[in-house]
Amino acid sequence: MNSKKTKIIACATVIEEARPFLPPSVEYYSIDAVFHNQSKKLHDKLQELINTSGEGIETIIIGYGLCSKAVIGLKSSNCTLVVPRVDDCIGLFLGSQKLYRELLKKNIGTYYLSPGWIRAGATLIEELKRVEDQYGKKNAEFVKHEMIKNYTRLAYINMGSKTEHFTQDSCREFARNAAKQLNLNYEEITGTTHLIIRMINGPWDDRFVVAPPGQEITYGDFECEEKD
Q1: Which residues are CB-neighbours of 81 under 8 A, at least 6 positions away?
Q2: Could you give the CA distance from residue 98 to residue 149 in angstroms, rounded to a whole number?
Q3: Above 50 in pLDDT, residue 2?
Q4: Cα–Cα distance for residue pair 109/118, rounded to 1 Å
Q5: 91 lies in some domain
Q6: Which H or E element spans position 43?
Q7: Are the beta carbons of 93 and 114 closer than 8 angstroms?
Q8: Coil, strand or helix at 75
Q9: Are 181 and 148 in contact (CB under 8 A)?
Q10: Could you read off the pLDDT of 45-99 as tens digits, one per residue?
Q11: I need a surface site. Which of 20, 60, 105, 185 has the fewest CB within 10 A?
Q12: Is residue 60 part of a domain?
């Protein structure tokens, strides 16, 4: 990969996990995690950033995955777009879309947390705190009930990462406390950075959607079965 001509656009949680592996010369743009719940706005924001990426950029890596179909319809007139062929960033953190879907079948009511979410302050805990500050504790309790009513467990994805202010132990403690606060069963699962590193450096195999200049990303691009 020619790092001087590559840009990465991703949510803050993915950027947090990818940051240790980014060459200094690679441009990146972090999108606020609030866009996760607003597919149309996320799509429009991504297209805007693609259109304004500037001269000299040959490849734009979209670190999202399908993400509620927000990437469908994206295209660039002069850049190649690369997107991990996963449903969302959880598959990216687990290193396998196939594994992610297997875990969903076993326990669909799972709220996932990774160190990146915690470092970015993009968890239900922060969201509930904002609701309580703005609307009061009673309303926050109602919102909490609505947010977690379909969840039975919290799964912390151990990515093995740490920073100056966030160690693995501190992230794990946050996740355990979050599970208690949300009345969810706690479980820790092992994540991996190998798909993130491949996303950054290539080569981009069947685990990635690669759209040359002028080619629009379609839903069919994500229907390819992942090889073992």
Answers
A1: 50, 59, 60, 62, 74, 75, 209, 210, 211, 217
A2: 26
A3: no
A4: 20
A5: no
A6: helix 39-51
A7: yes
A8: coil
A9: no
A10: 999 999 998 778 999 999 999 988 999 999 999 999 999 999 999 999 999 999 9
A11: 105
A12: yes
